[in-house]
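Lab channel / #folding
Pinned by the channel admin:
"Please post every new chain as: sequence first, then the structure tokens as a reply. Keep commentary short and put observations after the output so the thread stays searchable."

First post following the new format, from NK:
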Amino acid sequence: MNESQIKAIKQAAVDGLNKAVKNWKKVGHQFRAMLDSVSNESFQVNASNIPGHPFVNENEPKVDDFVALVVDMRKSSERLKTIQKFVGIESGFQRIYYETSALLPALAQTALYNDGHVTEYLGDGLLILFQVDQDSPKKTYSEAYLAAQACVTTSRQLVNELLSERFGLPELHIGAGLATSKALVTMVGIPTNSQAKVIGQCVWEASKLSDGYNLVHVAAGLKEIWPQSPTGNLRFQKLTKSSKHDVEGFKVSNG
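Reply from TO:
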């Protein structure tokens, strides 16, 4: 990433965090009696952010090819239960609120540089979609990987520096999962409360594979069609399946 992009990512984190601090001053007292609970509800949106599908008609579902990228924070539950107090932070809930308020906008801004669009915010993570360019699908795969790699490296570092400087917080760790497949574009929910969604194997696999620590994991299907040299000399190391994710995947590393 160039200097202006890095500046914009850092600004997105700063703006998100400043808004969180301002909001906490207004409502933080309401949560002091219920610090043991937290809502992980996704943000509801009316307009479609699905790339290539700005308008979604519930009566006209469509099928398209996507690369799904899920980025997820590690050990957020432990952070929620934290007892240690930091500068200006009095509870685990407030800590998680500040951390996600800085992290998620930074990751969203990072993805945009590679034509990735956030379609769902998932509490302490997000779902980013890339519409596969049918004329140059391998370019889409490369762009998705570049976005994922930037999220777990440069952008994570920028957010960690901000949180450490402002509150003395220890570093965040995140994982990124990548997968591709055909998927259904449709509306889900009830007439008075519905949203546009992409439903497909790529979303499920990317979610399961986002469990690494500052690593990018890719699904087997994406690895098989990976361009020979998208960003240099990449290596794929097969992951061991576990009860957490019964998905065949690979850890991606440079060199």
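NK: Residues 3-28+55-254 form a domain with the Alpha-Beta Plaits fold (CATH 3.30.70.1230).
TO: also worth noting, Residues 36-46 have pLDDT under 50 and may be disordered.
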